[in-house]
């Protein structure tokens, strides 16, 4: 088991030759670096689109679905962001790879429900991009349970996780969550609200920990409360992490990734010990 990128993501070395990846980028330097890195890491032959016409032609020329697009914000022939709008309108999962960035641009990007954005401002940019691509291509293996009595909150979290390609189940109560966990032992992460009418997040976590340890299920608690002691109480109840609403998308995704990375590392160590 190897590690990928700079975050310590565990990578099995699996190849993704069947994935159709489009790179919409006019820089010869970056297209060359991306093509070489994705080929050597994942055996992926990317399709390079150096302008907006190339991008449209690449989509039209084949009925094979595009697995993922990596796109600069501006391309020749689409100097005002039309390429990104085009990809989003086609519901093609997209990672933005850009050298132009400021807070207002970040807000516009996140509003478009992109998968991720990577800045070209450091020597690790292509490695960070490769890691983001690998996460997207493998996230479907992770089954995440969302527990919240608010339909709006469930829908918001579910849409965020599905954007990142996770499999998602939802429960409107603590008791329903226990039923779903019993029927789906492949769930590796649960995100639960604290304040629920039947079983609150603390009690739900305590009941789960009586049967399922952190080596099988990671638990992130969430709350809109301003009570800073909730995080301590939740961790003492057996939770692994805690976040206050409203979330920042990047932090939310990072916390999810960190917990799942930890779960995979624990499971890998347990397998190695069992073999030894």
Concise synopsis of the structure shown:
The protein is an alpha/beta fold and 276 residues long.
* Overall mean pLDDT: 94
Q: How many beta-strand elements?
A: 12
> What would you call the structural class?
alpha/beta
Relative strand content:
15-25%
* Largest sheet: spatial strand order: 4-3-5-6-7
Distance between the termini: 16 Å
Poorly predicted spans: none
Rg from C-alpha positions? 20 Å
* Outline type: globular
Count helical runs: 10
Order of helices and strands: EEEHEHEHEHEHEHEHEHEHEH
Helix proportion range: 40-55%
Query: Could you give a short account of the major beta sheet?
Result: 5 strands, parallel
InterPro entries: Bact_response_regulator, CheY-like_superfamily, Sig_transdc_resp-reg_receiver
Organism: Rhizobium bangladeshense
Keywords: Phosphoprotein, Transcription, Transcription regulation
Domain Response regulatory: 20-135, 143-260
